[in-house]
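Quick start: load a record and inspect it. Here is Cobalt-precorrin-6A reductase:
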Amino acid sequence: MQLAAAIAQAQLPCTISVTTETARSLYPDVPILRVWVGRLSPSEIGQFLLAQNIVAVLDASHPFAVEISQNAIAACSQLQIPYLRYERPRLQGENNAIVNSKLIQLDTFATLVAGNYLEGQRVLLTVGYKALPLFRPWQERSTLFTKVLPSSTSIEAAIAAGFTPDRIFAMRPPISADLEKALWRHWQISMVVTKASGASGGEDVKRSIADELGVTLVVIDPPAIEYPQVTSDLSEAIEFCQQNVDKI
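Running the structure step on this input writes:
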């Protein structure tokens, strides 16, 4: 949202692609920003870029939305449209004021479930519904809870992965730090598993609460992708847009 607001402030025409009406409502309601709602198959992305007269693609999708980024890169390469990946600034332990002494950083969910990290723990999973099936084998070896979006898809996936209704918390973010902390205390959580999502994804809040409550925080790194160009600098992202708009 910060990126979209900065683009609007710079008076740069922009088409934003989102998948739900709820996501549309999160963006500034200004004429210069057009929000398109829908899902695009790999074969439809190129057609979409041409139909919308897109001159450059600024990819700000979720760091775990690998398929979206890969499809966008392929379409831009085929159509010779400039592409830039905008990465959320990462939080790195000692380089930040928030340092959790019980922080575990892992490369993949597979590494987590293959190890003994979860053994005997009361674990809160804040990882999205798609990853929940990976944890089904651990339902008998640990006490698992999950926080998901309040959608039938998410809740049904959690139940199918072995979570009982009393171990599912469904709420759309942002969630206040006080409510987050209260939830951890209510469920007597000893470990939280989350994706590396930066401050904008609430990772800093989880680190702070984990440190305060003495909870182990497991942070899963996003998948590695070879991006043609990548930046975490907001000003560089805006400059990229400006340069390509000026070519029109």
